[in-house]
Each structure stands twice: as structure tokens, then as C-alpha cells.
Amino acid sequence: TYITEGKVTYKSPSNIALVKYWGKKEHQIPANPSISFTLDTCATTTTLSYKKLKNKASDFSFDLLFEGRPKEDFKPKISTFFKRTEPYLPFLKAYHFTIETSNSFPHSSGIASSASGMSALALCLMELERELNPHMETDFFNRKASFLARLGSGSACRSIEGDIMQWGLHKDTINSSDLYAIRYPYKVHPVFKNYQDTILLVDKGSKQVSSSLGHNLMHDHPFAEERFDQAHKNLTKLKRVFEEGNLLEFIKLVESEALTLHAMMMTSMPYFILMKPNTLEIINKIWAFRASSKTHVCFTLDAGANVHVLYPENEKEEVYQFISNELVAYCENGQYICDQIGNGAKKL
Ligand code: PMV
Known about the structure:
This protein is an alpha+beta fold. It is built from eight helices and 14 strands. It is globular, with a radius of gyration of 20 Å. Bound molecules: (3R)-3-hydroxy-3-methyl-5-(phosphonooxy)pentanoic acid.
């Protein structure tokens, strides 16, 4: 029997991919496996209030508040999410939902909130599912939350847990799946503990090309097969890198993945460029600094102009000096976010 009403809140983080997901098949199945660091500071907090309707509605019934205000333009994405998840959450049309959501990072900072937002919503809905089905094991709960989050936004499935998450079938990764992300199952050298990610906000404008459009352009992309194959190989290589703590190899792999992601964008039809002049300035500064210091600072990119600066915790002071002296000047309004690898979503 359905409970009449209630409320649940989750805080769910964003994540940054090391091996990138770019290209998908039907039903949000990735064209290649990917792996990410779960972040800590960058997160979405979502409260889901639910109230049972007298009669099951013919359509989804919900209100959406973003940072306290009604937000009509997010509603189609949520409707699509409900439509896709209803087969797995058959109670969705029996309730009226109020979804209140806010981000820890500045509004329109160019930081994608789809991973944190969709994972937070998926977790709230799973909590209602658990109310109706109390004997659920934690592993199942997390796996299904990841499965549902994937249907909202592919990369969101990697935001449920921490600290390293892998999504997509890969022959050298035990228990890997296209349907949900798993915690990275192999040994990781302690140098990756508390790994730092300083996000430089180069361009806070909204993206000219959505990631769903970008994924679609991989369909008849001339280099698609080669790229998907490379992602598989990079995941295999990364296993050894993680085990040995080989930072030089880590840097090569991560930077190459970032540039390949953008190379795919530049070589699709239509082609597009999401990097800005300051993105390239920052990359060059990072290379120069790395060559002249003993640090292992490197960069990665999302589907946008912002730069994620990655480095080990024990190099924090030296790299942070460099960032504030040399890189912050390239950020829009001097804005950046200090983040690090995190442990996944939390119920509040
Ligand atoms: O989750 P989506 O559909 O927004 O795709 C995001 C893809 C990248 O962020 C560019 C790479 C990744 O693996 O997160």
C-alpha cells in the first residue's frame, strides 16, 4: 500500500570524468565505458515532497522550484526523466511531487548540474521506493539509483557513490555494466587519496551545443569507432596507473582524454568548438609550470570551456600558489571552485 505523504532530501555531487563518455546508443547506453572522480563540494541538494493523489493521474504531476523559485524551463527534462523511469517506478503517477533543488556552485557558472541534479532526484525517488519496499539492500538501492540517474543524464549514474566510479561494459573490469555505474573495484595507490580538483570558471555563459546533441553527432562521426576503442584501451591502461600510482602516465592519459573529447567536437559535422582562448592559455600555463616544477598538476575538460586542474593532495600548497598567481587571471570575474575527490551522495 502506498504511503500518503512525505518528504526526503539528498545532496548529490557532480563528477569529473577521466576517461570520457561521448557518444551513446538508444536507451542511454554508452558507446564506450568511462570513469570519473566523484566530487565533493560541487553538489545539488534536492528535496522531494510527495503527496498521494486521490486518483492516479493521466500524466506526471509535479512542481519544480530552483533556488526557491518556480523554474518552468527545467520541467521538460524532468518530464522526460519521469517518462523514462516510470517502468521501474510504477508509483510515479500516483503522487503529486514538489521538487525543490539548489546547487552549491554559483548559478550559471558553466558547471553542468545535470549529473548532480539527476542523481539527487533519482535518490529521492529511490527513498520513496524504499518506503514502499522496506527490505531493500543498500547495494541494490545504490545500483538502482545509478540505473535511474543514467536515464536522466548518462554521467549522472557516476554520482551516487565515490570516490572513483566506472560506467560501461569493459572486458578488463569485473562487474562493469552499461546500465549503471560501479565503484572502481581495483586497488588504487594512496597518491590518489583526496586528489584535488580546482575548477577554473573560464566562461560562465550557457553552452552553445548541448551534450545530447554532441552525443548524437558521434553517430556518423568519421573517427567514432577508433575513439570508442581508444576509451576501452585507456581504461585498461588506467588500471595499472591507479595500482602503481604512476602520476606521469596518469597525466598523459587524462590530458589526452580531455583533448580527444574536444577533438571529437571539432571533427563532427556540424563541427563546433567549446574551448575559449583562455582555456588554451590555461593549458599552456599548466604545461609550462609542470615542466619547471616538481609537481604533477594536469588538466581535464568537460563539455565546456572551464578547466579542471587536477593534482595530488601533497602538492596542494605549491600548485595552489601557481593557480592563484597565474591562472585565476584567466577566469571570468576571477571565479574558481576548490574541490576534491568525494564519497558520493548523502541523505540529509
Ligand atoms: O551526461 P551527459 O549526457 O551530459 O554527458 C556528459 C559527457 C561529458 O561530461 C562530456 C563526459 C563525461 O563522461 O562526463
